[in-house]
């Protein structure tokens, strides 16, 4: 095996300690998580069987209504933040006030799924320690890990001192626009927090749990090229030029050749060219007609841009613009960018959090977690708060098949993930966290 995976796995400590070193309250946490397992699975089933596709506003709100009593029973105050002004249902925030000066912790998840009411994939099915259903991992399973961890802290007496905000967005899979409004409350809470924990799915490589200290951005670009239509026999001449499709091809091939660097991708999702070629109103389709003996007058394409830092985003977008502006004879081109999810860059402070989690792994008798390659993860809501706070992502359960029919989750992973999270938050809540400059 070569490449990033081999490098990451070579850093793992392959032997676990012979004996755990948990304090009595932490031992109580592990026991409480295990004792609550079947209740957690029952709540997961109830959540999954409520359709909460992003655009099913009633369903998103129904899941929030199911969860509100769960948080209030733990001493949290809850608020459902309406987002109808951005054509989304809203977000559920739950707040717990602990000791003044103690670490301020933000737990992030989301209520919505990609499966709308029209999807045939609607029902929770359990087979032993595997569950299948829409959102069973992404992200309703993550919500269960959050609640299981908090219940265990309450049972162990460590929740009272903790300053925690749980932010469950209702549109993570398709954020409302303008995004500055749909993520306003999350960003404001990120500015309050010392530590952010993202409860998207656990990263696993070669059957080993991994730590997520970085996630890449998710942005879109749209490219339009134009040419002078005319008889195909005159193509490539100074008078007729190269046409819109050759200009589109030049640009996309230059992207392929000139832009590659570590942790950068720029997929072309779809394209069309002809006389004319037109983008669909939904920006998810294009139509065209043409003839082989006519120089095409227009071409359109859309793709994404994923980066590891804001600096990389800005630099690569500028390089793409330079390529677009170097037009072939008789053509023109324009590119526009839609910057959606920012990157969660790897930082020393994020790595220090992973090191703290690895101390807990050692105390629990679990293997050490190496850094998961960020190029293998998509974007998530934790990225919106990454500029303001230290963070760890991938704190949710282990699953597979997200965003597709047959999405599944390993129910046994709920236990170790909730235990890890609860012990980490217990230790953080017992101190005045050294806030980093961001």
Mind sketching the topology for me?
Blueprint: H1 4-10, H2 24-35, H3 37-48, H4 57-72, E1 77-82, E2 90-96, E3 104-110, E4 125-127, E5 130-132, H5 140-156, E6 163-169, H6 179-182, H7 184-192, E7 195-198, E8 203-205, E9 208-210, E10 218-227, H8 243-258, E11 268-274, E12 277-279, E13 286-288, E14 298-305, H9 310-325, E15 331-341, H10 348-364, H11 382-385, E16 390-392, E17 399-400, E18 408-410, H12 412-429
Parallel strand pairs: 3-6, 3-7, 7-16
Antiparallel strand pairs: 1-2, 2-6, 4-5, 5-18, 8-9, 10-14, 10-15, 11-14, 12-13, 17-18
CATH architecture of the largest domain: 3-Layer(aba) Sandwich
Strand content: 15-25%
Largest sheet: 6 strands, mixed
Average pLDDT for all residues: 94
Total number of distinct structural domains = 2
CATH superfamily of the largest domain: Zn peptidases
**Number of helices in the DSSP assignment:** 12
| Oligomerization state | single chain
Computed over alpha carbons, the radius of gyration is 24 Å
Key words describing this protein structure:
438 residues, alpha+beta, Aminopeptidase, Alpha-Beta Plaits, 2 domains, 6-stranded mixed β-sheet, 4-stranded antiparallel β-sheet, 34% helix, disordered N terminus
Please, could you describe this protein's structure?
Pfam families: M20_dimer, Peptidase_M20. InterPro entries: ArgE/DapE_CS (IPR001261), Bact_exopeptidase_dim_dom (IPR036264), Peptidase_M20 (IPR002933), Peptidase_M20_dimer (IPR011650), Peptidase_M20A (IPR050072). GO terms for molecular function: hydrolase activity; metal ion binding. Its cofactor is Zn(2+). With 438 residues, the chain is an alpha+beta fold. It folds into two domains: 290 residues, 3-Layer(aba) Sandwich (Aminopeptidase); 124 residues, Alpha-Beta Plaits (2-Layer Sandwich), CATH 3.30.70. 34% of the residues lie in helices and 21% in strands. It contains twelve helices and 18 strands. The strands form five sheets. A six-stranded mixed β-sheet has the order 1-2-6-3-7-16, with helices on both faces. A hairpin with a 6-residue loop joins strand 12 and strand 13. The longest helix has 18 residues. The chain is elongated and about 85 Å long. The N terminus is likely disordered.
